[in-house]
Amino acid sequence: MISANDLSPAELAALLHFHADAGVEWLLEEEAVDRFAEFEAMKAARRPGSAQQDRPAAGERPSVGERQTSPRPTAAARPAPASGPQPAIPDGEAVQQARFVAESARSLSELKTALEAFNGCNLKHSARSTIFADGDAESGIMVIGSAPSAEDDREGLPFSGKSGQLFDKMLAAIGLDRSSVLLTQVIPWRPPGNRAASAAEIDICRPFIERQIALAEPQAILLLGNFAARFFLGENDTIHGLRGRWKDIVIADRAIPAIASLHPQDLLTAPVNKRLAWNDLLAFQAKLKSLSLLRN
Q: Is the alpha carbon torsion for 87, 208, 182, 179 positive or negative?
């Protein structure tokens, strides 16, 4: 075992960041647990010698109820159940609950409170933060990403970290900044290990993002990333096939023009695609000017 005293400050910081990215929130339990004694107790409970006297004599066949290779661990030998809330199981009931909770909110602040109190999605139990809309809800401009990154989860804000810094530059290039748009994510909780959200988890999160849009009433939407584009545009193509073209999405009986582009994280991975994103940003800027949402 490596002691923290053997690590340099830089190595220790890197290790802590690694644990945070992996979803580790607590390094110590509240009460000490002797895992060695617990393991020895489980081995003793499984040891066949303790059941010698109960074995049938030679030639005698055990009954069905006696056919057991080794005794089960006693209750005392079993590990204590984990404390805290158990993950919810995504199902139709959870989807219905999400719809009811979302539709009951009459403002973005009410919706944020309701979302933070909602426990019907497995993703919430492994995430550190609930990522909600941030920025100017009155701007008429909305930018929607896919799902929180590790940096978003740590900071509690959408578009954080290195991809967030690049995103800020993208906004500035067309005369915008974080304070002049409304930023949010389709999925409000970071999936463990940045895995893709399951179909059930997506169905549970859908009422909340749609209600955010309905309450904010944006006049134009920029979708960033493959998942966000597919989610709203209803197509299965990649972001390269979905980007750069306007399409109306209908939310609460309102048709809202939306355009998809590459996510900043995609651009960090493949900088050659920045020219494509720039063309999309110019198209978005032109639309905002035509709607009088951006000064010439």
A: negative
pLDDT, residue 79, reads 42
Per-residue pLDDT tens digits for 58-87: 444 444 444 444 444 443 444 443 444 444
Read off the amino acid at residue 79: P
Please give the structure tokens belonging to residue 22: 């992996």
CB atoms within 10 A of CB 200: 16
Q: Write down all domains in the chain, each with its CATH number in brackets.
A: 91-291 (3.40.470.10)
Six-digit token pair at 102? 């979302």
Q: Is the pLDDT of residue 233 over 50?
A: yes
pLDDT of 296 strictly over 80: no
For the chain, the average pLDDT equals 83
